[in-house]
């Protein structure tokens, strides 16, 4: 399969016609103050996350007209310009790891042609080894070195297959965009696109986003005051070594598995039978994968991942009392990495485990439910009011720094999870229907050290297709030795289906 670039341009915020929230704007200009990074942004190493949305020809129709790739491209660029007018920091560039400025820099928008595969062939089953060709940059790799120009916050590649289907490849700069930021940005973009197509019916779908809505991260998690606590560059350096250790240059193997709803129900029933009250979908999936990874490590004589780390969105958890009610401190539109990591630790020499954790073809209910309990305890510790208040205080950066130093010195192998469930990535309708499928990341090129033993959970298909395509996708980037061991685990494969085809 060959992917060749046919066009490249920059999409910039649509010029404002009147004064707005920030004041000072005049027609054709954007005079906004720099967007300040919070300390949680300053410690994220420079890399991109990614998402690709597949719209086959059968989906790209409306009651009024046929949507050609050209008309789709024009609609996407115009609606993106409208969206950047609200989410203006995402059109800028990070400067000195302190602010985002230069909002006229814009978002690269690349047009590409895909030859050698029809979309139906590409997705039957999804060709993970080719998926990264549909992205404008290599995801999950370091993207800046000293002296290089700062990269864009968002990059777009619209890939047109010979059959007429379109795959929109999107990359998001992790230093300013977590999954929640990405979700609100994409859903706003899609609403603007639908409004361009059907102005009357979609008019109320576009939410007003103020500058204050975007900037809550800095006021909630301010960087340390000069001369007080740990300097941001030390935090950033430590995090860089944790994410991209210089001695680790092996490529992680990417795999996609699907856990169907009936299998999730089975996992929940096992946890309930062992005394876990109301186990959640997230808890049982994480416990199942963690147990499977420990068993895979034991079978391959690799270090066991005794720590589970889970990204937790703080926007819906940070609250304050106002008029005897709990009000959210952060807007859902707040830009940044406004999440923290819950941590759960498994004690390998606990006699109660009785060796069952190491057995690849066993899921003893007691051992499995023990992991569910550990995951729940880790989440409870993170969301304790004292912990959240400390993280958002002037002691937050120092507390974060000490926690990361401990993680580095302990050298405990871990598995890290990020759940994209509920962010609506499978429901993104730009005016020509929802995508038939959305992909996360393909195989890495090997040119850079990459993150390993990380897992992303996402919905399999749009809500209207849940009857047919029910379940959760598990995207894994795992050490090749561990992956080879995991793929021999009969019990794991009984629950998780490897890369099933997308049929449309």
TrEMBL record:
Biased composition (Basic and acidic residues): 7-27
GO MF entries: acyltransferase activity
Keyword terms, alphabetized: Acyltransferase, Transferase
Transmembrane is among the record's keywords: no
Region (Disordered): 1-27
TM region(s), chain numbering: none
Family designation: Belongs to the plant acyltransferase family.
PANTHER family: F21J9.9, STEMMADENINE O-ACETYLTRANSFERASE-LIKE
Protein name (Swiss-Prot/TrEMBL): Uncharacterized protein
């Amino acid at each position: 399969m060959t992917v060749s670039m046919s066009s490249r341009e920059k999409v910039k915020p649509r010029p404002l016609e009147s004064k707005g929230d920030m004041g000072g704007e005049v027609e054709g200009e954007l005079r906004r103050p720099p967007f300040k990074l919070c300390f949680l942004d300053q410690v994220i190493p420079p890399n991109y996350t990614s998402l690709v949305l597949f719209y086959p020809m059968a989906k790209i129709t409306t009651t009024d007209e046929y949507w050609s790739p050209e008309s789709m491209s024009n609609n996407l660029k115009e609606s993106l310009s409208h969206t950047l007018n609200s989410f203006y920091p995402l059109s800028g560039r990070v400067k000195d790891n302190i602010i985002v400025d230069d909002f006229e820099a814009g978002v690269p928008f690349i047009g590409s042609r895909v030859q050698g595969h029809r979309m139906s062939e590409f997705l039957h089953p999804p060709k993970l080894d080719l998926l990264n060709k549909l992205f404008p940059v290599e995801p999950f790799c370091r993207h800046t070195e000293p002296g290089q120009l700062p990269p864009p916050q968002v990059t777009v590649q619209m890939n047109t297959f010979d059959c007429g289907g379109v795959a929109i490849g999107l990359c998001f700069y992790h230093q300013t965009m977590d999954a929640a930021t990405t979700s609100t940005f994409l859903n706003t973009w899609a609403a603007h696109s639908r409004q361009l197509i059907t102005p009357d019916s979609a008019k109320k779908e576009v939410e007003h986003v103020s500058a204050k809505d975007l900037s809550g991260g800095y006021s909630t998690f301010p960087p340390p005051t000069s001369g007080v606590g740990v300097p941001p560059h030390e935090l950033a350096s430590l995090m860089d070594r944790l994410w991209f250790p210089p001695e680790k240059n092996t490529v992680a193997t990417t795999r996609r598995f699907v856990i169907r709803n009936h299998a999730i129900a089975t996992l929940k029933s096992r946890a309930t039978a062992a005394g876990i009250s109301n186990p959640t979908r997230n808890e049982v999936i994480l416990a199942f994968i963690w147990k499977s990874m420990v068993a895979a490590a034991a079978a391959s004589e690799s270090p066991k991942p005794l720590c589970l780390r889970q990204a937790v969105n703080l926007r819906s958890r940070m609250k304050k009392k106002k008029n005897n009610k709990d009000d959210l401190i952060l807007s859902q539109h707040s830009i940044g990495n406004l999440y923290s990591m819950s941590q759960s630790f498994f004690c390998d020499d606990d006699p109660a485990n009785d060796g069952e954790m190491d057995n690849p073809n066993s899921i003893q209910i007691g051992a499995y439910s023990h992991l569910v309990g550990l995951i729940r305890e880790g989440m409870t510790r993170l969301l304790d009011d004292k912990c959240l208040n400390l993280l958002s205080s002037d002691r937050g950066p120092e507390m974060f720094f000490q926690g990361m130093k401990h993680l580095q010195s302990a050298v405990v192998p871990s598995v890290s999870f990020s759940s994209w469930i509920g962010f609506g990535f499978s429901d993104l309708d730009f005016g020509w229907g929802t995508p038939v499928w959305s992909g996360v990341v393909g195989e890495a090129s090997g040119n850079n050290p990459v993150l390993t033993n990380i897992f992303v959970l996402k919905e399999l298909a749009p809500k209207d297709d849940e009857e047919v395509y029910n379940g959760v996708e598990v995207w894994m980037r795992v050490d090749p030795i561990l992956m080879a061991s995991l793929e021999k685990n009969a019990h794991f494969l009984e629950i998780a289906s490897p890369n099933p085809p997308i049929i449309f």
